[in-house]
Amino acid sequence: MQSLKEVLKRNYAILLDNLQKACLKAGRSMDSIRVLGASKGQSPEKIKIAYELGIKLFGENYVQEGEKKIKELSFLNIEWHFIGRLQTNKVKKALNLFSVLQTLDRYDLAKEIQKQAEKLNKSVPVLIEINIGEEPTKAGITKGEIEDFLEKISNFNRIKIIGLMCLPPYKENPEEVRPYFVEMRKLFERLKPYLGSEFRELSMGTSHDYTVAVEEGATIIRIGEALFGKRERNP
Ligand SMILES: *Cc1c(COP(=O)(O)O)cnc(C)c1O
């Protein structure tokens, strides 16, 4: 039996190798991309191993699950992002735990972030989640709604928009996801003049399609099972 450490080490080596190939193909440098360990359903033990291998950025989908791990691993210098659907009644807690919220997907949430951030007297870096496949089951702002949305939240001075994120439709063949990543990059370029130099992150690509995402401009790839192995229900 291989130890957890050996398994993760091997997974990470494969990931870096694929990443390097994608970078070469796209003429990008490896340091323009950060790997986020998508650690929902993964144990603190695995997160610690991944950290020791060199991953410093992790993302959690549920506030309660995240809180447990963040507290348990507080002795490590981890940057934690929130990447799940955020309920408004969990915003306060989330702001105390996570340094970036990647899933701003609706006005009510923006309003609550502004309110809680004001109380804490802090500024909150967020990514706007885009429903790039316009799927009714998925969260996010559509391309058509984005300008309106930005206009509506423009008075929320505690919210700092640092980028866009998406979870595109699942396709067996990752090549079929490419057009969505291209759309994301185009949208990013279109909004950049309005959002300035702080607007620099494009969070896209998961275990299944990260090489394509990198070829199309991702700056953060969110990797779960390709790094940690299968998720558990009670990590
Ligand atoms: C779970 C999750 C991921 C990682 O998915 P994998 O297929 O395990 O790589 C990435 N992003 C979000 C928003 C997720 O919920």
From TrEMBL:
The keyword S-adenosyl-L-methionine does not apply. GO terms for molecular function: pyridoxal phosphate binding. The keyword Oxidoreductase does not apply. The modification N6-(pyridoxal phosphate)lysine is found at K40. Residues 47-230 form the Alanine racemase N-terminal domain. Keywords: Pyridoxal phosphate. Its cofactor is pyridoxal 5'-phosphate. Belongs to the pyridoxal phosphate-binding protein YggS/PROSC family. Pyridoxal 5'-phosphate (PLP)-binding protein, which is involved in PLP homeostasis. This is Pyridoxal phosphate homeostasis protein. It comes from Thermodesulfobacterium commune. The lineage of its organism: Bacteria, Pseudomonadati, Thermodesulfobacteriota, Thermodesulfobacteria, Thermodesulfobacteriales.
